[in-house]
Amino acid sequence: MKMMSPRRAGFLTALVFAAGAFAQPVGTDGAVAPEGDGGKLPLDELRTFADVFNQIRQSYVEEVDDKTLLENAIRGMLSGLDPHSTYLDSKSFEELQSTTTGEFGGLGLEVGMENGFVKVISPIDDTPAQKAGIEAGDLIIKIDGKPVKGLSLNEAVEAMRGPRGSTIELTIVREGMRAPMDLQLKRDTIKVASVKSRALEPGYGYVRIAQFQANTGTEFRKVIEKLKKENSPLRGLVLDLRNNPGGILQSSVDVVDALVRSGLIVYTEGRLPNSKTQFSASADDITDGTPMVVLINGGSASASEIVAGALQDHKRAVIMGTASFGKGSVQTVVPLSENSAIKLTTARYFTPNGRSIQAHGIVPDIIIERAKIESLKQDDNITEADLSGHLRNGDGKESTSRNRRQETNREAMNSDNQLLDALILLKGLNVLGANLQQNPAPAAVAHSDVEPLPPPPTPDH
Q1: Architecture of domain 103-190
Q2: Which residue has the higher pLDDT, 1 or 74?
Q3: CA–CA separation, 325 vs 334, rounded Å?
Q4: Domain residues of the chain, as ranges?
Q5: What is the pTM of this model?
Q6: What is the structure's pLDDT at 436?
Q7: Higher pLDDT residue, 56 or 89?
Q8: CB atoms within 10 A of CB 332
Q9: What is the pLDDT of residue 125?
């Protein structure tokens, strides 16, 4: 049996001491996590780790400093847990902080790992990635001709970053494509506008949330008030969360809080005491109960799923589109120093009715796949009003197919069947609501009191 050298014994002692510090991880509020296995350290595994560490230091073909080896060990521990737990070095930590403010450098992609490849969760609006046609679900298999297989997610992301204006080539695989596709992109400074809005038609508003940033809740309230002022009365609202990768939890809570009058919005459960939280509505519905449709798809993740799930459980909106991504886990950023941190999954999200979002997502009330709409040309859609010498209406008003189309702002919807269907549904709900108000259901009467209906008129031939 070989004796352990004093140097190695000293290293192992230090390693065991460091592991002891991690045996009781401290949460963001100082709460101590429950101990596993009575707090005992796995000494045999730590000895194996020390052996591997020492072998790499002594025998690897190139010299590697201890700091790099230990950082790689931390990365390995975290990456083996789930796709969202990771080590943040000084650069990654700084970039994480900048993304919550809505301005950062790169291509504008929210990505994860799947089977060793980089999977696109969502392209961000008005970024090089979105303009190049990258879609949620695409797999990036090469970056500048170099295979992604074998790279960690951080390494792949680092390879896609670069100076503003520099070019990069991504090779992607997409379901339904026969062969991989090469895309040329130019890096840019990504400035994400969190909330956008416009009127679809008089009385019908559209709000797009691209990402949940620090001020999203405040911006959302402002655009709703603007839509109400410019489209009075506001008869319907479409909230578009498609390809929204998520963001700050509190911002998603603020958005739901602006739309429901009371009740639970979301709650979380984890092992740490401070990971068990719940958020409830505290204000009135700023839309005054305006009918709503929420659009989601496979690129809707995390905070956007919280919004969709809460509005669905409260029966406040009709959820339309395709199933969401299914990221229902909470990541806590735990600083290790001024320049580094770990992002650790600490809890799961649950909707008000107790549904876990994790790996399941939000299933729409009405499933509508994205399709390409081929609209008729203006001159092809001829009606009676377009015929020469047509009989006039008699009310002094004239209408043609051309000016009727101009009454509706549908240019942006001609290529978006989901948005068009959302508008049609909202208009139908308004028609139904108006009919019910004007023609309430009659009180129950005895059968003998009901007069028979008159016979239908005979058609005039």
Answers
A1: Roll (2.30)
A2: 74
A3: 25
A4: 42-80, 103-190, 195-338+346-367
A5: 0.74
A6: 72
A7: 56
A8: 18
A9: 86
Tokens of 447: 């059968």
DSSP string, 212-275: B-TTHHHHHHHHHHHHHHHSSS--EEEEE-TT---B-HHHHHHHHHTT-SSSEEEEEEESSGGG
Provide the pLDDT for residue 189: 86
pLDDT of 22 above 60 = no
Copy the structure tokens of residue 382. 């001829």
- The fold of 195-338+346-367 is 2-enoyl-CoA Hydratase; Chain A, domain 1 (3.90.226)
Catalytic member of 254, 313, 416, 421: 313
User: Fold identical between 103-190 and 195-338+346-367?
Assistant: no
Q: Pick the catalytic residue: 122, 252, 302, 324?
A: 302
pLDDT digits (tens, 9 = 90+) for 302-353: 999 999 999 999 999 999 999 999 999 988 899 999 889 999 999 999 999 9
pLDDT (tens digit per residue) in 433-445 = 877 777 776 655 4
Active site residue 197: no
Degrees, nearest 5: CA angle 381-419-196: 120
**Rounded to the nearest 10 degrees, what angle do helices 249-257 and 303-313 cross at?**
30
- Is residue 29 among the annotated active site residues? no
92 is an active site residue = no
Top pLDDT among 127 and 2 is at: 127
Catalytic site residue from 197, 257, 324, 327: 327
In three state form, how does the secondary structure of 31-69 look?
CECCCCHHHCCCHHHHHHHHHHHHHHHHHCCCCCCHHHH
Say whether 80 sits in a helix, a strand or coil. Answer: coil
Whose tokens are 């695989």? That residue is 173
Report how far Cα 157 is from the mean position of its chain's Cα atoms: 19
Residue 94, pLDDT above cutoff 60:
yes
| Amino acid (one-letter) located at 34 | P
